[in-house]
Amino acid sequence: MSECLLPLLRSRQAPAFRQLWRVAGVYPRTINLAANDGALLTLHRAGEGVSPMGWVLRHDDHQRLRLALKRDTPISVTEKGLNLAGYHLVAPQRECSLRLPDNPAEPSLQTSLLYCNAETGLYGPLSTIASQPLPVELRQFQRSFRASLAGKMVNWCRMLGKGPGLTPTHDDILVGMLLAGWYHRRLNAECGAHFFDASVDLRATTTQVSVNYLRFAAQGVFSSPLLHFAHSLTSPARLPFATRQLLSLGHTSGADTLLGFWLGQRVVL
């Protein structure tokens, strides 16, 4: 009989678990399961936040499952969860929404927060970017984002997929810009639903993980560290910690996302 694992929490926006899954990636902090339609179910280690497509597992449970999984591990669906690698992963009942709420007050990000040595994936330290004229590609990002907000169709495939990692630099920048657009109420559900309509080859352009983050971000749904950062803009006492937490994401993902928020904010304000 399979040993039951009881996750602590799930994102309300996570995909339905009753579909066919395969193991897409096993990492120290996350386990990615992929569906045929491109949906992703991410199993997070407790203490690392939660993504829009995520479930959170206890630290020890995540470790045991991670060590037992292989790329070809079969996954079967039951009424209550998933069977994989000798474990029955029960779908969590407790949930949280990762949709950015409407806030009446919108304090902006001060440029001074970018004066740090955090390295971006392609453009060097944040402090250098903030103190010099923007590179051509970042100016193009802003022009494209401005056009999207004006209702024009933009093929983002020309810009995405560039940079290292499961979520490449340019993808993280766009997620940050989308966060700024939603935070400052320049994006809404209708605009977000059509944001990538002209980007027909999105899945061929970048990683499956990144496509999921991008599509959720267009809908105003973000990982918990990004929401914490956005909420902290109204609380100066919390902002330094939230910014450090954001900058700790991935190798350069946090810095790239913060850069994107700053770039997007300069478009919408």
Automatic annotation (TrEMBL):
UniProt superkingdom: Bacteria
InterPro entries: AllH-like
Listed name of the protein: Protein of uncharacterized function (DUF2877)
Organism field: Buttiauxella agrestis
Phylogenetic classification of the source organism: Bacteria, Pseudomonadati, Pseudomonadota, Gammaproteobacteria, Enterobacterales
